[in-house]
Amino acid sequence: MAVHGLPQSKGRLAIIAGAGALPHHVAEAARRQGEDPFIIALSREADADWTGFDHTVLAIGDFAAISRTFATEGIDRVVLSGAVRRRPEWRDIRPTFRTLAKVPSVLKTLMSGGDDAVLRMAMDLIEASGARVIGAHEVVPDLLADPGPLGAHSPTDDDRRDIAAGIAAANALGALDVGQGAVAVGGRVVALEGAEGTDAMLARVADLRADGRISARRRGVLVKLCKPQQDERADLPSIGPSTVAGAEAAGLAGIAVEAGRALVLERPRLVEAADESGLFILGIERDAWKAGR
Amino acid sequence: MAVHGLPQSKGRLAIIAGAGALPHHVAEAARRQGEDPFIIALSREADADWTGFDHTVLAIGDFAAISRTFATEGIDRVVLSGAVRRRPEWRDIRPTFRTLAKVPSVLKTLMSGGDDAVLRMAMDLIEASGARVIGAHEVVPDLLADPGPLGAHSPTDDDRRDIAAGIAAANALGALDVGQGAVAVGGRVVALEGAEGTDAMLARVADLRADGRISARRRGVLVKLCKPQQDERADLPSIGPSTVAGAEAAGLAGIAVEAGRALVLERPRLVEAADESGLFILGIERDAWKAGR
C-alpha cells in the first residue's frame, strides 16, 4: 500500500547531510510528509544539530560504512542535501567490493571534475549500493518555488532588466559548471558566485555598495538558476530567510529563482521578511523569460 | 619631424587618470619615451600622488572643463588609464556644445551600459572635442606582455589544465562585459571577477584556501584576458607586483595573461617577485591555446 502522497516504498529514507541549514529543513519537511528519515551527517561538513533525528556521522569518502548503514537501517531511498565544501581526496576513498570497479573513474573525476561531475559520481556509487537517489523535492514537493511573485512585492521594469542581465550571466556560469548565482545592478552584472556561495557574494555586493562602487540610486537583483545540465537529484538552488537578509543588506530590490527548479526554505518566515523589507521574490520560467515575458 | 619612436605629432599627450597605480606607471613610462604628459586626475577616482607632473583635477562628467583643458594645454592625444569605480550619474554630466547632440545616447548608456559601453561613450565624447584617444601601449609598447614565460618558472601540465579552465571562464565573462579574470584550481573555476577587481578576488581565494574549501594539495592559476569585444584604447588587463603578491597569498602556481593584449607593470620588480616565490608568469596566445598548444 502506498503511503499518503508518496511513491510506493518499503524502506527507510536516508538524508546524506552536508553543510548548511538546508539538510535540516529537508529532514523536518520529510517528517511532516510522514517519513522517518535516517541522517548520515558528513564529518567535517555537516554542521546542523541532529538531536531528535536518528543519525550517524561518516566520512564522505567512506562508501564502505555508508553502504553498511544502508543495509542495517533498511535504506532504499537517499536524498543528498547540503554543501560539500571539502572535496574528498583520493586517499580518503574507501570503496566497497561493489564500487571497486568504478574506482578508476572516481579518481579521474576527483582529479578534474566540476561540482556536477563529483555529484554524479557520488550518486553512481550510492546506487551501486542498491539504494535509489532521489531529489529533496520528490519527498517534499512544496519546497519548490512556484511561478510568479511569492510575497507582496513585484519587480519594476528596471528590476526586470536586471533579472534579464542576471539570467544571462547565471546561464553562462552554469554552463561552465561554476556557480548558480549572479547579482545585476542597473543592467550590469556586478558579482558572480564561485566557490564562496550566495551569502558571501551578497556580502561582497554590500561592501561594494558601502564603498560607493555601486550607485546608491540603483537597487538590483539576485538571480539564482539551476545549472542547465544539473542533475535535479542534487540540491537545487535554494533561498531562505538568510538570503533575504543578505539581499536587503546589499541594497537589492529582490530575488529571482527558477520556478519548479529552486527550493524555498522556511517559506512563511521568508515571505514575511521579504514583505517587511520591501523585497520581491519572483519565481521565473527561464524559457518564458527568454521569449521576452 | 617624427620624435624618436613615436607617431608624428605636434601636440601634447594627456592622461585621464582613474583609480589605482596604473595611470602613474603609464605616465612614468610615457616620460621615458620622451613625452611630457599632462595629467587630468578624475576627482573621487584618481588616488596617485601627481607631484612632479603637470596636472589638474576634474570631475569625470565635466566634459566642458576637460574640453577647455585640451585647448589650453594643446592636447592632441589622450590615454585613458585606471579604474573608474563610480559611474557618473546623469546629473553630473556637463556637456559641451559639441557633445550636446550626443547626450541622449550618453544618458542611455549610463542607465544601462556595461563597462565597455560607458568607456566607448567617453571616448566618443573626447574625440568630439578634437583629440585622439590612443591606448597606453601605443605610447609605451614595452608595457605589453610577450608570449611565453616571463620569469624563471613555467606551468606544469596541471597548471596548463587550470589555464584552459580559466580561459573558458574568462571568455564567457568577457562576452557578457562582466570581468576579465578567473581563478581555476584542480581544473575547476573557483572565483570569477566582478566589480570587486582582481586583488579582491585573489583575497577571496586566499580566504577559501584558509577555510579548507580549496584543497591545499592543488595550486591553481589566475587567468586575465582582454574581453573579446574590448576597445584596446581602454585599459588592457594589467598585472603588477601586487598581483604576484596576491596570487602567492592565494597559494596559486602562477598567472597567465594574453600576450600582446595585457600590460605588465614594473616588469623588473614583478619578475623578481615571481621568481622568488616560484610563480610562473605566462603570456598566452588565446587562439594557439584553443588549438591545444
Automatic annotation (TrEMBL), chains A, B:
Residues 12-143 form the LpxI N-terminal domain. Residues 147-281 form the LpxI C-terminal domain. This is Phosphatidate cytidylyltransferase.
